Amino acid sequence: MIDTKTAPYAALLLRISMGILFLVHAGLKIFVFTPAGTAGFFSSLGLPGFLAYIVILAEVLGGIALILGVYARVVALALTPILLGAIFTVHGAKGFFADAGGWEFVGFWIVGLVALALLGDGPYALKPTPKKAL
User: Of 1, 3, 124, 128, which is the most exposed, with the fewest CB atoms less than 10 Å away?
Assistant: First the structure.
């Protein structure tokens, strides 16, 4: 049974925490690894270096959109391919467990995004996703 009084606040908590995670990871790429360093890492994986800049931009804009609640359901689904890419290019080969660099955390992050997309924006969303959009 769903508690309809508290479920919207669960969506709010999930939406904000997912948004913060994306901003923190974008910050890591910007301030620690630097955009040029991130592009070099992408190139070392066989990906086009310019893709790093697109990923950083998507993480920043997507994180802000999630926190503010601007089409959060759609944004959550749109950010999922970035994390799938992280699994397929970096984390997947390292096994499951995150302590060994595996895909455990990234996989759980994807589940959170899908849950948010299914659950809805929650309260205090600036621009809720129309119900018929999903």
Answer: 1
Question: Residue 129 in contact with residue 74, Cβ under 8 Å?
Answer: yes
Phi, psi dihedral angles at 45 (to 5 degrees):
-90, -5
* pLDDT range class, residue 133, cuts 50, 70, 90: low
Number of Cβ atoms within 10 Å of the Cβ of 83: 22
CB 42 within 8 A of CB 52: yes
Q: Give percent of the chain with pLDDT exceeding 70.
A: 97
Three-state DSSP class for 71?
A: coil
Predicted pLDDT at 134: 55
d(CA 15, CA 10): 8
**What's at 9, amino acid-wise?**
Y
